[in-house]
Amino acid sequence: MTTSSTKVAIVTGASRGIGAGVVEGYRKLGYAVVATSRSIGASDDPQVHTVAGDLADPATAERVVDAALERFGRVDALVNNAGIFIAKPFPLHSDDDFAAIVGLNLGGWFRITRRAVATMLDQGSGHVVTITTSLVDHALSAVPSVLASLTKGGLDAATRSLAIECAGRGVRVNAVSPGIIKTPMHPVEAHPAFAPLHPMGRMGEIDEIVQAVLYLESAAFVTGETLHVDGGQGAGH
């Protein structure tokens, strides 16, 4: 049973990888969680409410935030983890690629963040964390990433703008910028090729991204920050 003092987090892209790790991390902090992704199933944990849906669909954001308010009564944290990455040389991208990436990475972020932030401002407290990519700061010739940079770069800039807009009203806004992380989207046989792309010589672990998100959750005097968790990739190569 959730009490009025129980904090509540929304996590997008929550069915696997970083998102699933973030759900677990917030539960360890005692938060109730609304977890969403296109393919997510029901949870055995009564403090985890799942909502299946595609955030590129405008109705999904409303359903997710409504579920948090109806089930748990509040929204204290939003972790924007959902996103897609299509690695192609720029001239080979189709209009469908562009629509898909913009629809989820930007459109999905816009709709769920708009609704969640409105709720947080009414409460007078809250925190938004967006997962971006170190490719925004340090492009790699081995990883074609124009559309990722177009969208995630926009979210990186929007993080600072929204943070300043909300800074005096109790709502903080930050981002985590990962390198290449060992998640199900990267086959194990590709790991040896990915590791040297990071100055530290290895890929990142899911728990290292979760730790960064939870640090920002607890860092009451930090807003407008992009925290790089990328083995030095964002700094140079």
Question: What's the short story on this structure?
Answer:
With 237 residues, this protein is α/β, with parallel strands linked by helices. Helices cover 39% and strands 16% of the residues.
Polypeptide structure, described:
The protein has helices spanning 17-28, 58-71, 95-123, 146-166, 191-194, 206-218, and strands at residues 8-12, 32-37, 48-52, 77-80, 126-131, 171-178, 226-229. The longest helix has 29 residues, at 95-123. Helix 1 crosses helix 6, helix 2 (58-71) runs parallel beside helix 3 (95-123) and helix 3 (95-123) runs parallel beside helix 4. The chain has one domain (8-228): Rossmann fold, CATH 3.40.50. By secondary structure, it is α/β, with parallel strands linked by helices. The protein has a seven-stranded parallel sheet, with helices on both faces.
SSE topology:
Layout lengths: L7 E5 L4 H12 L3 E6 L10 E5 L5 H14 L5 E4 L14 H29 L2 E6 L14 H21 L4 E8 L12 H4 L11 H13 L7 E4 L8
Parallel strand pairs: 1-2, 1-4, 2-3, 4-5, 5-6, 6-7
Helix pairs in contact: 1-6, 2-3, 3-4
